[in-house]
Amino acid sequence: MARKKRVAPVTELPASPQFRLPSILSTLQDSSCAFFSFWFHAIYLKMLQVFFAIHFIFWNKVCTIRFNGIMEKIQDNIKIGSWTRVVVLTGAGISAESGLRTFRDSDGLWEGHRVEQVATPEGFDLSPDLVWDFYKQRYQNALAAEPNAGHHALAEMERKLGTNFQLITQNVDGLHRRAGNKNVYEMHGTLDNCYCVKCSQKYDLRQIDLSQDLPLCRKCSGLLRPDVVWFGEVPYHLEEIFKMLQRCNLFIVVGTSGMVYPAAGFVMSAKYSGAKTVGINLEKPNNLAHFDYFYEGKSGQWLPALVKHWLEFSEVEATS
Question: pTM value?
Answer without folding.
Answer: 0.79
